[in-house]
């Protein structure tokens, strides 16, 4: 069969799938916290703490001890060659330590779909901890054997782990959460990232683990959440949707769902999943080619990829990078500027908690628009402030305020929503492939921003933020015009929106 015929079959099958799914009864809306219980909370903690903690902790763990680690690298190079190395060589090695984490994340994101289907969501998360062990062993022995290459290798392993976690954990959380709690539960992934970045910043202080003798211990602390997950996650069930729809295990799925809901009265939810499983038998396995050629899948794929790009290209990493410098310009000298940066991390955690509450009330699209709208205005004001910060105390203090407002706007929606939105806008057949593509794009954008920002900043100075303002405006327009509201909507309603768009 030709390409066009294959596409017709898939659209037809997708339409049959959407028709067969039960429509939500609007007459009896669910209460906000209905379905939440201690067992569900335990499963959320077991899956999120052991996964997204790796993502956040290893993103920020090298920041504070950078001078000490660079000094050690300098010493290793000098011992090997017998002569003092150029500072550019030392900087290049440290930059590779930082960037290889993103390269690993890109690889981990790309294989998420395979791992999710082959080993399951829970199984994939547990197996992924092998990479944490390899990373910790490599990083721990690096100093004693005098090999900075082992740190690079360890960062690569933990990068793959984090890339896989970024796909598997939100997928598991989306599939175990009741429909009315999908947004709040999905936000947990970003919440733990913000907490773990803050923990890394605190532990990385020279007075704690960021010292010349203890920095290998600082890197090794990433084993703690892995141990927590290996101990707790086996006590939780696999995703009921995975068990039923992918594996065809009806009784196991019902037992898993009963455990998660804390009740045996799960017939209505099981019926909905059974209808989805039956309908998905009509749909061929969703491949990358199918995602691109099938308009009913291509539209949500474009949305998923764009919100991931928007998150990374919004300038969050640039603002974080500039924060210490901005605080110093405002008259805060180390260690005061360091503690101000910790305060910024605490605000990020607090506002992500606020987002968790708001996402089920205000909705996904509303928070994305508020977040990106606020960031656009704030980034422009930050750019203006930076132009005068060196000569005006008022401008430098204003820049500090703009940085804090920026973090608040990012945490309200753009920081958390992209991670779980992918799971909401795709059905079970397409979700693993879509998640792989979205997570890979996110890590790729993260890597490119990290690679390009410093050269751009040196070339453009404060004008680098104009680039981010332009990107934020474009993303804001896209979100307003294309991103649907998925709050409290069933798969049928979300699919119907995309089906309507694909025929327009």
UniProtKB/TrEMBL annotation:
Q: Which UniProt keywords apply?
A: Cell membrane, Glycoprotein, Membrane, Transmembrane, Transmembrane helix, Transport
Q: Where is the Major facilitator superfamily (MFS) profile domain?
A: 44-487
Report TM segments: 92-114, 126-146, 152-173, 185-203, 215-236, 299-319, 339-359, 366-388, 394-422, 434-454, 460-480
This chain belongs to the protein called Major facilitator superfamily (MFS) profile domain-containing protein
Membrane topology, record value: Multi-pass membrane protein
- Name the NCBIfam families on file: SP (TIGR00879)
- Gene Ontology MF, one: fructose transmembrane transporter activity
Entry keyword Membrane: yes
């Amino acid at each position: 069969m030709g390409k066009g015929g294959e596409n017709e079959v898939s659209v037809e099958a997708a339409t049959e799938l959407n028709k067969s799914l039960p429509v939500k009864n609007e007459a009896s809306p669910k209460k906000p916290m209905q379905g939440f219980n201690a067992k569900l909370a335990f499963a959320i903690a077991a899956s999120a703490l052991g996964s997204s903690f790796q993502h956040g902790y290893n993103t920020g763990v090298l920041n504070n001890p950078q001078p000490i680690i660079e000094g050690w690298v300098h010493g290793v190079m000098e011992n090997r060659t017998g002569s003092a190395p150029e500072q550019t060589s030392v900087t290049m090695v440290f930059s590779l330590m930082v960037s290889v984490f993103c390269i690993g994340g890109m690889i981990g994101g790309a294989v998420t779909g395979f791992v999710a289907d082959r080993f399951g969501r829970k199984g994939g998360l547990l197996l992924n901890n092998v990479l944490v062990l390899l990373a910790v062993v490599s990083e721990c022995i690096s100093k004693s054997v005098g090999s900075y290459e082992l740190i690079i290798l360890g960062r690569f392993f933990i990068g793959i782990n984090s890339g896989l976690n970024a796909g598997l954990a939100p997928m598991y959380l989306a599939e175990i959460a009741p429909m009315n709690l999908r947004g709040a539960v999905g936000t947990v992934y970003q919440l733990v990232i913000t907490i773990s970045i803050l923990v890394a910043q605190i532990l990385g202080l020279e007075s704690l683990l960021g010292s010349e003798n203890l920095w290998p211990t600082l890197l090794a602390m990433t084993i703690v959440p892995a141990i927590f997950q290996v101990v707790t996650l086996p006590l939780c069930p696999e995703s009921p949707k995975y068990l039923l729809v992918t594996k065809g295990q009806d009784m196991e799925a019902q037992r898993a769902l009963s455990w998660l809901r804390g009740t045996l009265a799960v017939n209505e939810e099981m019926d909905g999943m059974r209808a989805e499983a039956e309908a998905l038998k009509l749909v061929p396995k969703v491949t990358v080619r199918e995602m691109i050629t099938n308009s009913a899948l291509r539209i949500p794929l474009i949305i998923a990829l764009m919100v991931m790009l928007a998150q990374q290209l919004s300038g969050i990493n640039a603002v974080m990078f500039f924060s210490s410098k901005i605080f110093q310009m405002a008259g805060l000298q180390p260690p005061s500027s360091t503690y101000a940066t910790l305060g910024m991390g605490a605000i990020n955690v607090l506002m992500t908690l606020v987002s968790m509450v708001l996402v089920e009330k205000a909705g996904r699209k509303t928070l994305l628009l508020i977040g990106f709208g606020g960031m656009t205005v704030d980034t422009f004001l930050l750019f203006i402030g930076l132009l005068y910060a060196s000569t005006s105390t008022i401008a430098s203090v204003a820049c500090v305020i703009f940085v804090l407002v920026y973090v608040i706007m990012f945490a309200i929606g753009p920081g958390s929503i992209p991670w779980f939105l992918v799971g909401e806008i795709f059905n079970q057949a397409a979700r693993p492939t879509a998640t792989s593509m979205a997570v890979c794009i996110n890590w790729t954008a993260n890597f490119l921003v990290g690679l390009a920002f410093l050269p751009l900043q040196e070339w453009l100075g404060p004008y680098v933020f104009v680039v981010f303002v332009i990107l934020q405006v474009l993303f804001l327009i896209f979100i307003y015009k294309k991103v649907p509201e998925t709050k409290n909507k069933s798969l049928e309603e979300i699919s119907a929106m995309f089906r309507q768009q694909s025929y327009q």
